[in-house]
Recover the amino acids of this structure.
């Protein structure tokens, strides 16, 4: 990595900031592309070259890619609800196509695309993995569909000779999820006592620091045109809440909510949110996704890349401590955590 000019998109985001930090630690010459509205709080202390631009603005991408040898395209519009769903496609699909075309013209030597477990985590008799051929029709919601379409653009480019590799994070957790992501919101809802119950669902979780290190391994050891899942542990939502209860001493919810009831509440809450002009707290898309277990087989990256998966439980603990230290937890709940730790 040392000495090569590397462009990172999405460097201000949760995963992107960790990828950027680890690249700098390895001696890479890092340039970041940030939108004018982006907040660089997660990377402000790093020696970076800043370019202002937008994935939807091809001219800004030409400027940002001048002299660049490697690209980590981590940026994505990760929302389970948007007032205008086309915005998600414009960023995730259109933006990726724009960046691919600009990278080809710039003669970039390597392009690491951050996809998602969502493009393969579908119902199968065996746990899905990188070879699972999921169809667009199996993607639930605009975010998943947009990422499936964007990943297809990258893999098509690789088949046509462009040096692209796909990293597929599962569900990263850990410090510096400052927005937070939809997963971070689940953790915060638990921490702030806003989760009366749970639905039967499951995801694969991975520490964000390990996931970022996995991206660098994909660049160092991955094969062009291949996909690599970067994940650690398959956990039900109930197991996650029980883990958070052990970490904090706060009680885990015991009420199991039927999916049909949760979906009805989500539809009603979304309709009310539209009336008053705010983002729904319970996105319908999120509840629909939760109807399926998104457990996957992550054995390839450890076997072929030497990926260190780490402990998801330790990652949850790092996330909780960061939220606590940065004022995301209501004072009365934070006090309960302190009391539980002291007991």
């Amino acid at each position: 990595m040392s000495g090569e000019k590397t462009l990172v998109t999405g460097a201000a985001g949760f995963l992107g900031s960790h990828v950027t930090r680890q690249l700098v630690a390895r001696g890479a010459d890092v340039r970041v592309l940030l939108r004018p509205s982006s907040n660089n709080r997660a990377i402000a202390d790093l020696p970076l070259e800043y370019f202002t631009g937008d994935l939807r603005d091809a001219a800004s991408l030409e400027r940002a890619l001048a002299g660049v040898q490697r690209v980590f395209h981590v940026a994505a519009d990760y929302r389970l609800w948007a007032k205008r769903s086309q915005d998600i496609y414009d960023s995730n699909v259109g933006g990726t196509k724009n960046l691919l075309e600009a990278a080809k013209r710039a003669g970039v030597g390597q392009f690491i695309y951050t996809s998602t477990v969502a493009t393969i985590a579908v119902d199968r008799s065996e746990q899905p993995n990188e070879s699972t051929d999921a169809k667009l029709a199996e993607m639930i919601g605009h975010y998943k569909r947009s990422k499936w379409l964007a990943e297809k653009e990258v893999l098509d480019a690789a088949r046509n000779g462009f040096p692209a590799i796909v990293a597929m994070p599962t569900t990263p957790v850990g410090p510096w999820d400052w927005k937070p992501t939809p997963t971070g919101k689940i953790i915060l809802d638990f921490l702030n006592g806003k989760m009366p119950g749970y639905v039967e669902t499951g995801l694969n979780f991975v520490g964000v620091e390990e996931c970022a290190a996995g991206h660098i391994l994909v660049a160092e050891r991955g094969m062009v045109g291949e996909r690599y899942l970067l994940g650690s542990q398959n956990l039900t939502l109930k197991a996650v809440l029980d883990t958070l209860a052990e970490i904090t001493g706060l009680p885990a919810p015991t009420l199991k909510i039927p999916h049909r009831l949760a979906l009805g509440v989500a539809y009603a809450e979304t309709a009310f949110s539209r009336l008053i002009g705010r983002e729904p707290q319970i996105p319908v898309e999120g509840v629909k996704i939760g109807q399926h277990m998104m457990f996957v087989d992550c054995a390839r990256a450890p076997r072929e890349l030497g990926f260190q998966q780490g402990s998801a439980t330790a990652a949850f603990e790092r996330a909780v401590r960061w939220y606590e230290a940065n004022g995301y937890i209501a004072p009365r709940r934070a006090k309960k955590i302190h009391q539980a730790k002291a007991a």
Q: What stands out?
A: The chain has a mean pLDDT of 90. DSSP finds twelve helices and twelve strands in the chain. The domain at 5-178+204-233+296-310 is CATH 3.40.50.720 (Rossmann fold). The two ends are 47 Å apart (CA to CA).
